[in-house]
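Quick one - inputs below.
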Amino acid sequence: MHLLVPNRYRGKLIVVEGIDGSGKSTQISLLSHWLRSQGYAVAFSEWNSSPLVRQTTRRGKRKEMFTPTTFSLIHATDFADRMESYILPLVKSGAIVCADRYAYTAFARDVARGVSRRWVRNLYRFAMRPSLTFYFRVPLDVALGRILGGRDALKYYEAGMDLGLARDVEESFRIFQGRILDEYEAMAAEMGFHVIDATLSIEQQQRMMRGIVVRELGDSLKNGILHLPAGGEFNGRPSAVNVLP
Amino acid sequence: MAARLPLTFYREPLPGVDTSELQGQLIVIEGPDAVGRSTQIALLRQWLEQEGHAVLDSGMARSALAGRGIQMAKTGNTLGPITMTLFYTTDFADRLENEIVPALRAGFVVLIDRYIYSIMARAIARGEDRRWIEQVAGFALVPHATYYLRTDVEHLVSRVVMGRGAFDYWESGMDLRFGPDMYESFIKYQKRLIHALDAMVEPYEFTVVDAGQPIERIFRELQRRMSRLRRGRIPHRRVRGGQAAIEKAKA
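Output:
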């Protein structure tokens, strides 16, 4: 089945995926700063951040109103709004859009919630195919250690409490994230993920990411991507002289 | 009530729903904007309740989860066609799981003012992929009957202008601006909607009802058809000449 729409435009779409605690947000943030420092027009899109839909999602979560189906649909609605109003026009215009989580999050998480795999993949068929997808592979225990150490309370849906997997929140979280991890692993090859070993140091991971960006996109970045002329000024700050690679 | 065919899902079973438990009757009233659906639903409800049936009616953008969010999104100017389609599908799913299925379990007659067909027609009228939305909406239950109140766009215009006195932005498809003003956009957009609904008559087994008739006559026709359905005859599954009915309604 034809899953995602090919990107026929000047811009690029770079995506990070992985379970909670894999460190993907840190890495995409570092990568986008680096690309910006190289003078490129860089935009950022986060999962679950549409101004039209966010309120509904937040209320539904607070009141625990979701079923697996409506949870899946509201996240697809949020994604659609960001795709139509933000990601697509920016990629068309020649920007590099960095996305923290993408359709693959739904493919992994909604299926782990019991939604049909075929149905959720069709649901996101309108999504643009990313230029690069980084998948941060991390053993469950390492990720759990990072999450459980850093936050006071696990959230209801994040821990999969709606599924009745376990009475204990931590136990439920462990089972649910384990299922999500299995789904990610099962699609890694099929979806062409660039796998990053998320147990390495932050610096090592970032070096690998930048290396892959240069290797995979290097030449196409010289063509058509919006960027400031070398040595030019942006917001009073000098932009970097070097353009990739 | 007479025994009837058990309900089934179009494509994907809804997690956690055992269709053999659904004892009620699922009736859909479809049709374009301003065709008079809600008037008929109010009349049908009154009649069914007098007959001793428990009735639930449910309509678009009325879900506890997404109703308010949709209304808010429609007041802005950034709601794109795919987002709108999925927002309405979320709203439908919430009503299906939390209102419609529980009512069917309890043996209610459920009257639905516009089903997935309107969501699909709006998406198709806006140029979205038909197969995509058909699969997305595939968790819907196949209704016992769908009555399609059909009319032409000229009749809709007269109803809008005489009844409400003004054109509505979304009913005129102004998000995609099919014409230079609301009237022309309304004509083009509603024609596309009617075309999309007409194309569903055969595959989705609609019963076509001529909405150009007076309210009373439409109501009596719906009453007659529903009584027959409740006696265990299921005419819409053996519908013949759906296309002919459209031609007749057009004429």
